[in-house]
């Protein structure tokens, strides 16, 4: 089973992708997802430390367990609206 | 009452303000964020705003609902997306409440939290380079 992972702002520029499919079957926590993304996309590994992860459009902490049903995971770089 | 939107069209301050008129409210506070040319010695040419729109709307709705509940307020939040020029309105936040103190507090609450957790990004085009997320960020 592959999971949709979305990139935004400069992450999309650096990876040249807005959406990828990753195998996250081995991941139990949000932090483990962060590690998988980091190893698959070393070009954004440094940036990932300052990004938030949203599972099914809800922000989650690294220690949080992944839910059974994952529609998508969004990698959210520091926001700058306003 | 709450009204939340993301739009590419120009933000019409007058029309949005009218949504906040409520016969039981004695105060309307408007915060209008505009594009500034100079930030210290950095000269901005234009700014492009992008968003994870579906999630941003969800987060903006959460903020509006929180402020409605906490201060008994009516709330309007509109953020513009796309390419904006100097002096263009980027964000409109309107809060109306029965008494004045609450609409100041509610307005501040919305803009501060918007800047922390609503997935909207600015790509700032200076005269000499492009920066993501303002002068404090280093994502080059």
Automatic annotation (TrEMBL), chain A:
Any one Gene Ontology biological process term?
Mo-molybdopterin cofactor biosynthetic process
Nucleotide-binding among the record's keywords?
yes
Q: Which domain of life is it from?
A: Bacteria
Q: Where are the transmembrane segments?
A: none
CC terms in the record's Gene Ontology section: molybdopterin adenylyltransferase complex
User: Which CDD domains does the entry link to?
Assistant: Ubl_MoaD (cd00754)
Q: Which GO terms describe its molecular function?
A: nucleotide binding
Q: Which UniProt keywords apply?
A: Nucleotide-binding
Q: Which InterPro entries match?
A: Beta-grasp_dom_sf, MOCS2A, Mopterin_synth/thiamin_S_b, ThiS/MoaD-like
**May I ask which residue range the UniProt record assigns to the signal sequence?**
none
The protein's matches in NCBIfam families, at most eight in alphabetical order, are given as: moaD
- What family does this belong to? Belongs to the MoaD family.
The molecule here is called Molybdopterin synthase sulfur carrier subunit
According to its UniProt entry, this protein's organism is Listeria swaminathanii
Upper lineage ranks?
Bacteria, Bacillati, Bacillota, Bacilli, Bacillales
Question: Source gene?
Answer: moaD
UniProtKB/TrEMBL annotation, chain B:
Task: Look up the domain of life of the source.
Answer: Bacteria
Q: Matching CDD domains, A to Z?
A: MoaE (cd00756)
A biological process from GO: Mo-molybdopterin cofactor biosynthetic process
> PANTHER family given for it?
MOLYBDOPTERIN SYNTHASE RELATED
Please identify the protein, giving its name as recorded: Molybdenum cofactor biosynthesis protein MoaE
């Amino acid at each position: 089973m592959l999971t949709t992972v979305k990139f935004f702002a400069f992450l999309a520029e650096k990876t040249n992708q807005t959406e990828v499919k990753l195998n996250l079957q081995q991941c139990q926590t949000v932090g483990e997802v962060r590690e998988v993304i980091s190893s698959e996309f070393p070009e954004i590994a440094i940036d990932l430390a300052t990004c938030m992860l949203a599972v099914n459009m809800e922000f989650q902490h690294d220690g949080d367990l992944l839910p059974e049903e994952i529609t998508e995971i969004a990698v959210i770089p520091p926001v700058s609206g306003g | 009452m709450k009204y939340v939107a993301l739009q590419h069209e120009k933000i019409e301050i007058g029309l949005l303000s009218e949504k906040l008129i409520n016969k039981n409210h004695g105060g309307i506070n408007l915060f209008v964020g505009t594009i500034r040319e100079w930030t210290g010695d950095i000269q901005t040419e234009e700014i492009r705003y992008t968003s994870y729109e579906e999630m941003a709307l969800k987060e903006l709705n959460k903020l509006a609902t929180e402020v409605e509940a906490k201060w008994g307020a009516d709330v309007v939040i509109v953020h513009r997306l796309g390419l904006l020029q100097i002096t263009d309105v980027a964000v409109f936040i309107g809060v109306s409440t029965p008494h004045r103190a609450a609409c100041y507090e509610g307005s501040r609450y919305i803009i501060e939290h918007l800047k922390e957790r609503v997935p909207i990004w600015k790509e700032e085009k200076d005269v000499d380079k492009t920066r993501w997320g303002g002068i404090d960020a280093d994502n080059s």
